[in-house]
Each structure stands twice: as structure tokens, then as C-alpha cells.
Amino acid sequence: MEINIQKRVLEANETEADKSRKFFKEQNVFVLNMMSTPGSGKTETLCKTLVKLMPGVRVGVIVGDICTTNDADRLEVTGAKVTQINTDQFGGDCHLAAHMIISSARQLGCEDIDLLIVENIGNLVCPAEFDIGEDARAVVLSVTEGEDKPLKYPLMFRVADVAILNKIDLLPYLDFDAKLVVDNMKQVHPHLPVFEMSAKTEEGFEPWLEWLKIKVFEKTGRGL
Q: Using CA atoms, how far apart are residues 135 and 20, in angstroms rounded to an integer?
């Protein structure tokens, strides 16, 4: 019974995701689904990314959390258009679903943005299973989380279009093998681009920004 229910949930989500994809194509907006565990530095990475992209790239952000607006408040300071989804009203879901995204995107307004970033709820499992109508998926992993994470949660890395290995400024103080974690990512997804960087110091940030700007330009013809 649980398998059948899950199948129906995913099928319904796929239908909504197709609607979202059509909507974002009509609006000429590139959509990035950004996923990670809690504490990976995803929000700080986004804050720095927004500051460096704008105003050349017009950005909107949908922030997903079970409770609080803490991350949305931080991102709003950058000047980007930001809206919040709290899933406690939906029973505390640990992921965002497609119907939530299109509703929030309409509320946010897409007529004056080139890039919509969805900061998904911190979780390496459920968000990987739900298509939200995005153009690309990014996963953020920090050096404080363990080299085995790509092998323990392979779907997340298999469905990602790009990975960020964050907090590399901490490497001198940790017993962490950066080469091994990248090798593990490549074992799961051989052609996955991996950007090693620090959101705090901004070391290694440029390749990530260049990748993102190119993706936006390829869809919208804007931003470069």
C-alpha cells in the first residue's frame, strides 16, 4: 500500500512539474533547484552568489523550510526578490513539491527575473525524488559532513547537474580527504561538475558563477 501511495504522489507531482516547466519556459526564466543537508553553507553560498550576479542577472529566490523565515531574511538583504514556503502548514514535509513552486513563483512575479533559485529544504533524501520543474539541480556538500555522503545518498548526486564542495577554508583543520569525496561523487555520477570553494572566503567562487551565468544565458539569452 505504501509503495502504491508513493507512486501516486510522485505521478501527481510529475504532472505539476510539467506545468511548471511550461510556465517557466513561457516566462523565459532559468530555474535552479539548490539542495543540501542543513548546515552545508547553502544559504551563505546563495547570499554571495546573488551579490555577485546582480544586477547583471535579475534573480528571484524561493526559500523552503519547515519553519521560520531565517534564511529568507538573510537573502532578502541582497536585494533579490524573495518569497518563503514553510511546509509546517502541509504537515512539515521535508521537501518542496512542484505545486508549491509554481504557486510561489506566480506570487513572486517572474516578469522581471532571469534566474529563479529554489533553496530546497535541507535534506539529502526527499528533495532528490521530487521534480519541481527546474532546469538544473545543484547539491551543496561541506567538508564537515564526511567523504562517504555521495555513496550513502547516491540519488541526490546522481540527479544533480552540478555539485559544490563548500567550506574548503576549513580543510587545514579537519581530517577530511577532499579528493576522496570528489572521487565518490564521480563514482555515482561520472560527469558531474564539482566546484570546490568557500562561501566564507569566496575562494574558488568564479567557476561556479561562470557555470551559472552560462546556463542562464543558454535559456534566456540574458545575463552575460
A: 11
